[in-house]
Structures are given as C-alpha cells and as structure tokens.
Specification:
Elements: H1 9-33, H2 40-61, H3 70-91, H4 98-123
Helix pairs in contact: 1-2, 1-4, 2-3, 3-4
Keywords: Membrane, Transmembrane, Transmembrane helix
Protein name: Transmembrane protein
Organism: Mycolicibacterium vanbaalenii
Amino acid sequence: MRKGDRPTARTTLGALAADVVCVVVFCTIGRRSHAEGLTVSGIAETAWPFLTGTAVGWALSRGWQRPTALAPTGVVVWVCTVVVGMLLRKATSQGTAVSFIVVASVTTAALLLGWRLAARAWAR
C-alpha cells in the first residue's frame, strides 16, 4: 500500500485478525509451557487481558487507518497489549512477575511487530 492510499476493509480486518491470532498464540504457548490446560476457556481466560490491550492499541493508534504500519500502529498496539494486559492481570490477581513482563514484552513484540515487518518485506 502506498502512502496516502486508504486500506481496504480486507486489509484492515486481516491486520486485526493477525494481531488477535498473535496474542492467542502467545497465550497458548504460555499455557502450554506452564503445563496449564489447553482448553478454549483456559486460553480465553489468559488471553482476555492482552486482547483488551490490543483493542485499546487499535483505538489509540487508529489502526484502521494504517493497519499494517510498523509505526505508529504496530508499536502502539504492542505497547498497549503489554501494558493494559499486565494492568488487567494485576487487577484480577493474575501473575505479573517481572520475568513474565519481560518475556511477554519480547514475545509479543516479535509477534505483533514481526508480522508487520514480514508484510512490508513481502510487499516489496
């Protein structure tokens, strides 16, 4: 997509879906690595704080305007996913150990920013 072009609904929905899939993958891997059950309800319980953060990031960055952009969209979505996700986990007495925050930050950066970098490379 060239600068100034408006993204199609397909591009926007695809980007939003990619972000949701990335967060769900992150939460699924986390549950598996901690020997927690891989049920739909268990994954949903782990994912909802981060998915809420992803939604906040989309709203703050107006992600629908530049859904595949690394910056600002990708960076804002990533930061909000981690910050809002951790705040909601803390508010609901879920784990927020420093090591978890670091792992979550690095992993979600790789996923949420990584697919955007790959899309940029593919477009060229």
